[in-house]
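Now for a sample.
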Amino acid sequence: MPSRGHGGRARNTVSRVFNHILVVCTGNICRSPMAEALLRARLGRRVRQVASAGTGALVGFPADPLAVEVAAEHGLDLSAHRARQVALPLLSSAELILTLDQSHSDWLNRHYPQLRGRVHKLLRWRGNADVQDPYQRPRAAFVQAFTDIEAGVEDWLQRL
């Protein structure tokens, strides 16, 4: 049932349709590519575009080999992924921007204050926790990051 939001406009309290979702981490080679692929697979046709980028991206680099391996074990293909830097045109087209840790949310809100309200942590409903960066860490760190990402994606799917 729609409720009245600020200004008397009808607002859907159950779900909202998003055409573009952007996932942001640091280098865009570990966490955000896994989250992007998982969101895309789970959302299917419910969203037009899911993308990812980094606040300090290793531009043009493929996904980390351990991220590729862990994602593949869950039926996700990261082989075509290439890292890209967060940029205003990409951010502006996203109705929902999901970050992997607080530093990403802080960075986005500091550099692009006009995006406030669109920037949320992936683990918002899990104590607003961070997904720890597995970069240059053992395989177990990538498995844990994927497990945390999957939990966050499932939480968001219930709300999209």
Notes: Residues 1-15 have pLDDT under 50 and may be disordered. The chain is about 35% helix and 15% strand. Helices lie at 31-43, 65-72, 88-92, 102-111, 139-157.
